[in-house]
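User: ok so my PI wants both of these folded by tonight, can you help

Assistant: No problem, let's get them done. Here's the first:
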Amino acid sequence: MSIQSEQDFFKFEELCKNFYLKPEETIKIDEVLHQYFLNPNFLIEYKQILSFTKNSYVVAQVIRGLIKCVTSFWTSLTPNQKDDMSNNNGNNNSNNNKKGSTQRKSDTYNNFISILFIYIYSIESNIWLYIESVQPLEQFALSLVFKLYSRVLKYSWTEENNKKNIIVSVKNLMGVCNNNNSSNNNNNNNNNNNNNNNNNNKHHCIGLKILKDIISEFNEYIGEHLTVLQNRNISISLRDNILLDIFCISLESLNYALANSMDDKFKSIRDLALDLAYSCLSFDFIKTTSMDSSEEILTVQIPSQWKATFDENNPLELFFKIYKQYHSTKSLECILQIVSIRRSFFATEDERVKFLANIVQYTTEILKSNIGFNDPNNHLVFSRVIERLKTNYHLNNLVTVTSYSDWISNLSTFTIDTLKNPQFSPNSIYFLLTLWAKLVSSIIYIKGDPSKTYLEKYSPIIMESFINSKIDNSYSDEEDEHLMDYEKMVEILEGIPHLGRITYQATCRQIIMLLDTISTKFLNETHPAQLEVYERQCAWLVYIIGCLILGRTSINSSEEHDKIDGELSVRVFILIGYNDKKLSNETNNRYQNRTSRISLELSFIYFMQNFRRIYIGENSISSSKIYQRISELSGPTDHTSVLFSIVQKIGFNFKYWAENDEIIKKSLDMFWESVNGHSTSKMLIDNKITKDILKTHSSQVFPFLEKNSNPRNRTSLYKTIGKLLFTDENMVFFDEFIAPFDDTIKYLLNISTPEQFRTEEIKRKVIGLLRDLRGIITSANSKRSYLLFFEWIHPNFSEVLIKIINVWVDSPEVTTSLLKFMSEFVFNRQSRLIFDSSSANGFIIFRDTSKILVSYASLILKANISKQDLYKYKIKGIQTSMLLFTRCLVGTYCNFGVFELYGDPSFTSAIDYIFQLCLSVSLDELMSFPKASKAYITMLEALCLGHTLSIIQLNQQYFIHIMKSLHRCLDSQDVTMSSSSCTSIEKIITVCFYQMKKKNSQYLQAIHQNFFSNTNILYEIIDKIISIIIYEDNFNQFMFSKLLLTCIIFHQDTFTTLKQKYIHSFNPQCPDKVEKAFVQLMENTLDNLETKNKDKFTSNVSAFRKEMKLISSSTGSNSNNNNNNNN
């Protein structure tokens, strides 16, 4: 679609406006707008549109279109188009201000992207007067303009020698503000000066926004044409060249705003400068964080070159000053980053001590006055600052600070106030409890008297306040949300053992008193509202007890502490018994809808799980005094009786909580860990409960099999039962155990028509069957148990599976269950698929697997699937099919050459359909899903290593797709994927090399067709390998060196071409050095692929890498020297 007339423009304008004003039509409108952006004329039309319109909606969409074009097609843009984007405002402004135009430098970064930047960013006053004559842009449009500028700047970054030009431009833009400010102070009544000041403040804000957006853009991995390595190098280049300058600009702007603090007009400058400062401090300085990682960086790796700026400007004092004056959350976030600076940033111990003393002093002042804590955000970030302080500095360092006693006292008060006040975020509580836990756990490392830490004085008070706060807050319904957020709650409880066990007897007395009182009221209460309160209170106390017991392993304990654990535990076991009895007597199921009751059940599971781990499992202490104390309080008890009590509780949950997925899942986890544990499994294998389960395991015994909506729970249950079944004591029950599944298979086989087979009842039965059997086969880890299962399932099951695929291929719930079962069935786990030499079982397994794969692939390839449903209906199935095929390839229980020898197409058909599946989606779509991409590369590695000649003989389409896929993953951040790609390519080229040395090899034609008619494949591979060797830090040098040598020896002409490219373009100022480096790379290497030759070449690569890095760094230094001389 194109804009050729005024009517076309009005139509386009209406679409742009509705995109923002009619959210319900956004997706549909976006598809239409996308057609405009894809039009080749768009890169010409956008200038006319921007010249014609004053509408922010139109401007925003045009800029959005440009961003899409730039991002997707940057490498396809002509140099003129790139220059046009970068230099357009200089050309368009010539008529408005000739003098201003001649003053501008011709560098890319002194000019801005499009005609729009005439309206916004030019620093000459007459341009800003022109701005005032047009309608100002809305913020959403401006944000997109900044993004476009930053994107173009990033993509063209390597082409610019003088990186600091952007800093010069922004400083000039913002410097006008400072100059005019002084004149305004001399003549405050001058209206013109006031107007200039307003405009200059706008300039200043725009400059700050631009710089912040640049940092954000360079810190992200954006642009398909840029590899991870290139993204990383561009980001590091920004760090080394201008990031410190940007940080200095943010500090100067903050001081400028503070100097005019009485004027509200400077608030925007202050806020934007804080945002910019935080962007600088939170920059990924060493670029080791994965693009998919969500983990917080705890240590800020600021370069040592920043030390002088920190000494001169003292940003820590500046940010604390801003916080005290304005209560700014962003200033606290900046403080958090500074507190997290690596300790080696300071050259001497005196500097570190001084820095720490300043932080303690500033935070103490805030703690004393409670500055800004009315804002929950401030409270949270300040809690993080205090916690991070202990993370980066030892307790020994803290206690040497003069004001430590004052600091720890105020910190205690602050923590208690936080615990008492429910308005504060649970995250604040988490950070504060983590801080106290770290402090207490560090007492053993204190040099001298531990009492100087004052922790034995304050920690018990904190623990008591925490327990009381949970009891008091339980009257609020909001506490249910905290209890049900299981992961977050367990995180909060992690610090409790350290605090509770420092004075364990006092903690125990408080808990026992509360639990005895509350549990008595709970068991006698009938009013629902009051019951909810008691349930919450009991849940918190049980969680705390469970957490204290778990802490026994990590904290010094004693027999006295074990007795205390016994006193706490016996009360919980009694409460569980009374609660279950009360639950079983209830005539209605309203309890299942009470969040507080669910929370109580989850707390019981948490407690029992921790008790089993410490006092029953592998790490249990048989001589522990806990059972002695429990026996004194509730009758004779040992670890066996407690274990069976836990198993009975699990069975109770299966019956009475069948519809609650969370309780069932955690009960199954506890069941599995009990069965899978070495000592606990021995207790459970040979007993009446286990034998009853093996004989009867229907939905009557496990009601959740029918009532629970999560089919994964079925797999977990039968995985656990299978673990009990496949033991020497219980395998005699196999026929009796498997009989219900046998009946189900016969029932499915007897259904005659697809219509009868395609009902919801049959669908549920099929999914249940497949998931149950998958759980069982997962636990068949020995040759004997697997053979027992195989002999039962073999005769008819493949027929059932093909029948299921034919009817339910359009249902991913069914096909995924089927493919995952088959993936487990063919998995040679612990060498269980080892058959006798006279057995054909291995061939039978793969032949049936091939039939199932071909049936699935042939049907799913015909399905018409939308983009929105692509993963669910297709990619997930492809992913599981690749996993299934890979497990067959690496299973070593089947010689695949036999199929070709006897004319059986099972293997070749499987390969053909697997690659048809891979090609049915684009490589970008497949690689955008981490699990799918990993399964794909793993499959390719298995094929390349075990079936190289089959890969070479594939048709050209398949072969090129394989090589492109492997080439793409060479620089993957996932080391496994990059290593697999390296190994696969090396294997293919090595086999081709040796085949070409043979006379009359039957594979020569395939090699010439796939390699020598597509020389670009090898060219791109060698180019990327050299790039990785030169620039990448985290790579397997030996692996990449071997691959590079293999490629060079296989096709030396391609390497020669690439060498000439590097000689002329890597550093045009010293091509002789580059040529010498390449000569040394091949020095003393021979024309073979022997190990000795590869080892020699690897040492050459090390020298080559070092030399090329020196040549690369000399490029930047030479250009900077030239620019300085020109200036």
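One down. Here's the second:
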Amino acid sequence: RISAERRGPPGAMATFSSLSTGLSTGGILGMRGLNVFIQDIRNAPSKEHEQKRVDKELANIRKKFRNTDLSSYDKKKYVLKLLYIYMLGYDIEFGHTMVVSLINATKFEEKQVGYTATAVLLNESHEFLRMVINSVREDIIGKVEHNQCLGLALVANVGGREFSDSIAADVQRILCSPSILPVVRKKAALCLLRLYRKNKEIVIADTWAPKMVKLLDNEDDLGILLGVMSLLIGIVSHDYRGYEGCIPSVCAVMQRLARAKSVPQDYLYYGIPSPWLQVKCMKVLQYFPTPSDPDYVRAETEVIHHVLTNTGTVKNVNKNNALHAVLFEAVNLVTNLDLPNQKSLLTESVAALGRFLDVNEPNIVYLGMSGLTRVCAPDTIEAVQSFKDVVVDKLNDADISIRKRALDLLYEMCDANVATDIVDSLLRYLITADFAIREELALKTAVLAEKYSAGNARWYLDVALKLVEKAGDFISDDVWHRVVHVVTDAPELHEHAARVALEKLRQNSYEEKFVRLAAYFLGEFGHKLGANEPPFGYAKLLFEHFKTSSPQTQQIILTALAKISMHPGADDDLRTRLGMLFRQHASSKEVELQQRAVEYFVMTNVGGNAERLRSVMEPMPEWNTQSRQSKLERSLATQNAQAADAVRVNKARSGGAIAPIAPPPNDTAEPGTPIPTMGIADLLGGAPVPNVNGNVNGHGPAMGGEGAPNGAAASPAAARWGQVRSAVVDPMSDLLSGLGVHPGQPPPAPPAQPVMDPLAASVAPAPATAPPQSNPVPTINVADCLKKLYAQDNGLLYEDPNMQIGVKSQWQGTQGRVMFYVGNKSPGTLTDVALELSGGVDGLHARLAALPTQLEPKKQTQVLLELAAAGGYRAAPGLSLRYSVPGQAPVQVPLKLPYGPHRFMQPWRPTNAQEFFAKWQEASAGRSEGRVVTVAPEIARGGLAAIQAALSSVRMTPLPGIDPNQKNLTAGSYAKYGNGGGVETYALARVESDANNPAIFRVTTASTDAGTAIGVQEAILSQLLP
């Protein structure tokens, strides 16, 4: 439980280890009560028994401390018990006065216990620590060496700025005084380092640099030199200026150690002269520029050459560790300095590191490849490439850490000369590579193939297609998007890309991402295949894959088929057959698939639009990839920098986080009423709010991200509609009129039925279904749709035989926009149509645009809901749907909206478990909600991985490893509500497993805001419960 800020320098902790030896050999063994208590704790059969024993002991100690006449023996015994209890992980809330009072005692045994307990129980900001500053200073400046060591060790562990103001001058005097014992001066150096880190003003280069030079030149004790070198590293790492005079002294120490001159036996580690001091000397020199004096340069070069040429591998592991520590620091020094014969030293460094690759010890091989990766540079890459074959063999090593290092090294050593060999090796390895490494392997292979494909574009295309085909499940969409960009910019590849894609599809390549890429190539470049490959043939092949693909892939295939219908050789018969496919999916539950199907049907099968809209289906223009940095390279650079956290972009908005918006035409809002809005331009792709007449000026939102190719993102109609709008029959005037559904006919068949093959049968009308009922029953499982919408931005909210409501949403900061797509499925006009919010919610501003009171048959309109989180809240307001069917009773359907506070959460990752549980205690003071639940069977089977995925889906950042119980999982996020003045409201979750039943979990949420805690728990349970 000793945190990083409490531990202090390693040397200081070693001091306490030595001091504690006295406790174990003299004090603790003679304390019967303490030994009995420790034995009771060790013999406790359960955690509950241990807790009970600790509580009993704490009550006894509290009672004893009320007695002012405690003996010296009792004081030490009870303070040591408190120390032991604290080290077990329990909080100690009393007894600090007794601990501090022991420092003022006259006996060394009492001082020792007081100093040890103070260093562990208190940190530098604790108020009780101020009470002992004077006592500690008296011990430090006194004449008793044991007391000086105790005081210096305490300050080196927990000293803060107040200590630096009081005792810094005294510590400097002790360090520079040759009459004081070396053991005290060593601790003074580490103590001064701690104080310097807390207050840089205590050491001024003009006055302190000469003293450092004197210490380095005149001091023979290697222990003091080790402490002084640690101090020097701490100083020059902040600012080296003024300390250039230390370079000769450091070089002299290095030479002394290299020659094993005047090195006491105590500082020979397996025959190596003080390897830790050698490492520190080389580390110090890396902070300085290359010295101008040739003598100093020669001294550094000699030592480095000696280390590089005389370091080998021995059987003793400890000696190996020491030798290699010095070697790697020497390599780092070579790469940081600009030496006259640096090229030869770099070559020697590469050779020394390369020798490690043939060793049978995995740790040494790992270190060798790590070192070679670091030294890869234009002037060393040729030498590093000499080990290429050995590194390729390491891709098949039994140790996955070595395999990862081999991949990193191959990536770094690659250039135009060896790119073909390395990429081919990586492709062969891809087939057998572990799942844990395939994603990184595929990404690096794609980057290398593109980077070194100049003059050999066809080779790049072949590599990219093999990569996507073999590793599709392990690559992101960015990889195949980038292939699209590069091929689109290279006209000479268009025909080859389409031909290879067609051949692979005929070989039954069913990898999803490859099918997407092949569909794009055939849709864009299929017309270049010539008369031997008619559009009907590859359209039918794409349809075969359509039937077994995911909705995301189906969207791209639909776009490709729409473009194929405009290729030379495509006739009205093909367009009619494809129109049947579009018609089948015009009522799909997948909103994006439905929108594309409707738009493509209108373009290809309604009123001569095929000829008028041919320009919409023209091939995509060039992406101009040469002027843009590859997104794959950016992603790889982020991984290499270990930037795991997403960059948070806070966009400034005029008028604060919630700005008023002018009401749209025919809006019923009163003038001057502030209405929450996004405050940024049209997050949903430019679709304005429909007016009360139902006229929609625009299309649905674009779904593509940065760099997504056409067909992978938004439908092409939205991209070029403005260019041809005046010449085309307006599809929005009768959006669903061409779907083969007319008054008197039932609605189209639901997508749950098997997909009909329009390319293998003649055109036939859609199968009939039962007519609408007077009392509509939902045709979908509304609860399942609501569960999906808790985690997804897009989906279906409600559907019955007459009405369908789809949803698309987008969120940024504390604001969100939700677009409802309200469609009339019935053959008659719906009247008295209304969509209203029911009930206000404190903390959430909501504004719903007006809905036309009449909805014509087969028509769809859009309604915008704007949300802004001004404060914490429990749940979004309800939604009420009303409409009337002629000749039937009015319909009123209450709907629930899944837009709780989890929608506004941002990721939070604590640095350690202590930070999380400190925040948990703070949040629990506001509100804590706990519930024991039986999770869905698929969650129970998936275990913690499924729990983690469920938490991520509702924007709670999983934090594995934080909870001491490995079978439990924690998560955390925060929101900056609009009225909070930028204050972060944290929402934390803890999912605890039942040891006896894998399907039972306790889900607890905590937040400083009660409504947030309840709302976040509701969102989590929506993904866990059946």
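The longest helix spans residues 317-336. Residues 1-26, 642-706, 710-753, 761-774 have pLDDT under 50 and may be disordered. Good luck tonight!
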